[in-house]
Automatic annotation (TrEMBL):
It comes from Pararhodobacter zhoushanensis. It comes from the Bacteria. This is Metalloregulator ArsR/SmtB family transcription factor. SMART domains: HTH_ARSR (SM00418). The keyword Metal-binding does not apply. The lineage of its organism: Bacteria, Pseudomonadati, Pseudomonadota, Alphaproteobacteria, Rhodobacterales. Pfam families: HTH_20 (PF12840).
Length: 110
């Protein structure tokens, strides 16, 4: 990930609804969620949710798949990995043991 993409991702996450959507989709995992379910869970109007989902998709943090007449959304784990790798690219000044606690905290136990 380059600086421009990282800035786009951070801009997308700098709004409360979008941050909550992204965290919700991370929790949903491989099952993802429909736009309606996301709206209902977060108590956000569907037209507002549609705009926020578009911003997150353009930032590379979520992806979508059409299921008949509805769309299911998922956290884009490659986008998230890219953002985290960008942040930690020059981590620890050659002392990887300093980064290990952060890596351990990020590791999914699932």
């Amino acid at each position: 990930m380059d600086e421009k993409n990282a800035l786009d991702a951070f801009a997308a996450l700098s709004q409360a609804t979008r941050l909550n959507v992204f965290r919700l989709l991370i929790k949903a995992g491989e099952a993802g969620m429909s736009a309606g379910d996301i709206s209902d869970t977060l108590g956000v109007r569907q037209n507002t949710m549609s705009t926020n989902l578009g911003v997150l998709a353009r930032s590379g943090l979520i992806r979508s798949e059409r299921e008949g007449r509805s769309i299911r959304y998922f956290a884009d784990m490659e986008g998230m990995r890219g953002l985290l790798a960008f942040l930690m690219e020059d981590c620890c000044g050659g002392r990887p043991e300093l980064c290990q606690p952060v890596i351990n905290e990020l590791a999914c136990a699932c």
